[in-house]
# Entry
Amino acid sequence: MPLLLAPPPSAARPLLALTFGVAELNALLRAFCARGRVAEARALFHRYCDTYPPDARTFNTLLLGFKEAGNAQALDLFYHDAVLRGFVPDSVSYCVRMDAYCKKGRFLDALDLLDEMRKRENCRPTLQVFTTLIYGAGIVRNATRARQLFDEMGQGGVTPDRGAHNALMGAYVRARDLQSGMTVMSEMERKGIGLDDVSYNTMLCGFQRIGDLEGIWKVYSKMVGSGFMPRTRTTMLLMKVFCENARPDLGLELWDYLLGKGCVPHRHALDVLVTGLCCRGMVLEAYRCFREMIEMGMTPTERAFRVLEGFFKRKREFEKLEEIRQMMKATQLEEHQCDEEAA
# Structure
């Protein structure tokens, strides 16, 4: 009796027919735009737009691609071409164009789009639109207009979120009105919105720019008092300000605060702190921070090691000198082994 062989998997389960439509075209355009290949994305659009009629997402994807590429002129040309093809812009389209204009300093052009948007039916300005315009007002240092736009949000039934408050705060900082910026920060706390790293970093940068150490201290105290965990950029800013102004003790306080929160500061923060501490004669404190980073599983930079090594040589602390050399060798060996295993 002949054996009955089972049919191969391909025969038993026929392949599904693959289709290509506007959704797939949109995904392809997004992929090209994400890699900055906007010209190729536009060429694909022109090649397939008749076969696969585009929708609003198609046009907005390309508008966003031109905006991210910083090519406002190409964005305008494509937009007007799209309108001729029957494209009806929505709030996303307007927001993308506004953002492109604002980043080029064309704030008045962005405001014209707001007026145009308000004249259209079913195209009310959104939270993102207002936030974008407030940010644009900050770029041209027009804090008064930024505040007006912020107030218009409430009048239009739009509730400002943390991003809108941060944009307003940034506008005040760019206009060097730090007091009003601090008032916005207090408003956020009073409303229960909460501050994030953008909030703190914005105010710290503003005070750093005008050399107001007291202002920096106020913001830093507020941050630590609330138990907030700053991101690397804010940590670096504070560490540089403290150490460059002969207050490495405050940098050490920040270091201990971060470790107490279970966070290992960036290696470059250790560079700044070790240099600042050693220059003020606090070599043992610098050694302690160096050792703590290693104990937390991080390898200090060669710069931090060389600074500490140099000061131990001057003080003839040969035992400590040998200790940090052995610690560096051990961590570098472990790092090398991890790289080999990953390869």
User: Anything to note?
Assistant: DSSP finds 19 helices and no strands in the chain.
